[in-house]
Structure formats: structure tokens, C-alpha cells
Design brief:
This protein is an all-alpha fold. The protein contains 3 helices and no strands. The radius of gyration is 24 Å and the shape is rod-shaped. The relative contact order is 0.10. The longest helix has 25 residues, at 3-27.
């Protein structure tokens, strides 16, 4: 084998390792620690609202509705990021 073939083969191997590594990283995208933390906080807040007494002039119920909506939006944001 001549030097040209060896260097071309070496370059192809390095490029395939770099591209392959990046593809594996993006395929497993998930982590998103801030979104996960926010989701946990919202779920905890919802649990606390559910345990609170009901006499809040409808504000507790509204807060639970909005918190549930926020939980769904965070989940959708995580799913969107994982696809793109």
C-alpha cells in the first residue's frame, strides 16, 4: 500500500469515529437536566396543591389546572427536543 491510500484510509476511519460518536450522542438526546428538574418541581407542586384544603375561592383549583398544563408543556418540550 502506498502512503496516499494509508492516509486516506486513516482519515476515513477518524471521520467515521467522530461522526458515529456524534450520532450516538444525538440519538440518545434525553438528559435535559433543567427541563427534568422543572418537571419534578411542577409535579411536586401539583401534589402539594392536591393536599391543600379546598377553601381557596377557586384559586387552588385554577392553580392545579395551570400546573397540570405546565407539566404537559414541559413534557412536550422534552419530546420535541429529543426529536430535533
Amino acid at each position: 500500500m502506498n502512503a496516499w491510500k494509508i492516509s486516506t484510509l486513516g482519515l476515513a476511519m477518524v471521520l467515521s469515529m467522530v461522526v458515529g460518536r456524534d450520532m450516538v450522542r444525538s440519538a440518545g438526546a434525553e438528559p435535559q437536566p433543567h427541563m427534568r428538574s422543572a418537571l419534578g418541581s411542577l409535579e411536586s407542586a401539583l401534589a402539594q396543591l392536591q393536599k391543600a384544603t379546598a377553601d381557596k375561592g377557586g384559586h387552588r383549583v385554577k392553580a392545579m389546572e395551570l400546573t397540570t398544563q405546565a407539566i404537559e408543556e414541559v413534557k412536550k418540550g422534552i419530546a420535541f427536543d429529543n426529536k430535533h
